[in-house]
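Request from the bench team (R.T.):
"We need a structural guess for the complex before ordering more copper (II) ion. Sequence and SMILES attached. Just send the tokens back."

Command: build protein-copper (II) ion structure.
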Amino acid sequence: MLVTHTWWSGRRVSRRGLIVTGAFAAGARLLGKPSAADPTPPTPAPLSSGSLASAGRPRPVTLHARPMTVTLGEHTINTWAYNGQLPGPLISATAGGVVRAPLVNGLTEATTVHWHGIQIAHHMDGAPGYSQVATPPGGRFDYAFRVPDPGTYFYHSHVGMQADRGLYGPLVVHDPREPLSYDVEFTVLLDDWLDGILGTPDEVLTQLNASADHDDTLRSTLLGGVTGEVRHPLYLVNGRGPETPVTFTARPGRRARFRIINAAADTAFRVALGGHRMTVTHADGFAVKPVTVDTFLIGMGERYDFLARLEDGVFPLVALAEGKGARAFALVRTASGTAPAADVQPTQLDGQLLTYRDLRPRRADNLPRPTRTVLVELGMRPSGNEWTLNDRLAGDPYRLQVERGETIRVVLANLSPMWHPMHLHGHTFQVHVPGGHGPRKDTVNVKPRERVEIDVQARNPGEWMFHCHNLYHQEQGMMGVLGYGPPVRVTGTGTGTGSGTGMGHH
Ligand SMILES: [Cu+2]
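Reply to R.T.: structure attached below.
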């Protein structure tokens, strides 16, 4: 059955986790849309992507990367996005199944789509200069790949600063044997926005490249110092600013699953749901032993799923832009009544904070014991705007060589004055925590002076990007390679964006 509705307005799931579409979904759409009094027109609704009826035989979802105009607060902005939607359409699939999502490039620049967190076949990874040549304007690339693991993921352009425009969207892989029981699920994409307000992301990058300084007023003790490169004019939930918040609607007493995705370029968020505690069930797509907290910090590229039994009323879903004095904001509504103001300060924001040590994986997700250790130092050059992995920049990248089948321990030692959300393509690693096994993840935050150990099992051959998911740091050099066997030199790849030149195909 195919239903047409805004994907963030809710979807009912049976007690056994089967997807129930139809009447409820249609009702949720009506309830979830802004009222007639809402002064801002809603973002064009992602309609009939086919993704809701994907069990078994999903239809392809074509991604048209193209310019669009979007209204954010008082700003009318020309940006780039997929299918005239911000965020792009929800793509959903079932674990073990195949996603087909051809890309049509209607931009004036070459582009790719990267499927963040998926242990994907190498040639489908969307990594320019590593897994493919970026698709030129007017071109097309037929992405089709198997999704081995259930969980919450997202997709985004991997060319230059493009993902800091609107070129991102959610990817949800359902578990055919979903062990959790919940009634409704909401997908929540967080973003920091500057495109069309402070200039284009490329222009902002150029400004940062011309300066050795960092904005010392952007500070967070949770992140160990300066928290980001840019104070953004807007922070978004599902493409909406705090003044015109998205409303997630359900009935009181329902158990809701929230899938929180940080699609921002430069902002960690501290997330809390007013009036509720959150039972975290997944980190970066992988199940963890459920742990109940008041709040969590989510870095760029990370995802957390949590469950909450919804109280009766209207509740703020707050995502503080950590250390930046602003926020993204949405509402959870189970009853009529006045919505809380966008600057409400739920006590949960200062309550019990999730740590990586709280996250325990399923036994089946533990990786083998590593047989060797590799040190990767995260550094900053005196220029203040070049970020390195083992003293090397993306143009001549550090390459971590692995042999197929081995498991290695990578020690990420942050010698730089800023935190870095480090992301590895094509694999999920296991964070090593004192006293036990840590979570499976694909993105891990490393604070200044901190050492984080991750175990990586080499089971997906290719040349894989390994980089900071702060988009500015990525473009300022913080990009290395995890490669299988000796390097193979190939010429003629790359996009001229400075990433991965010289690294080859497999
Ligand atoms: Cu970084």
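Two things stood out. Residues 189-358 form a domain with the Immunoglobulin-like fold (CATH 2.60.40.420). The radius of gyration is 21 Å.
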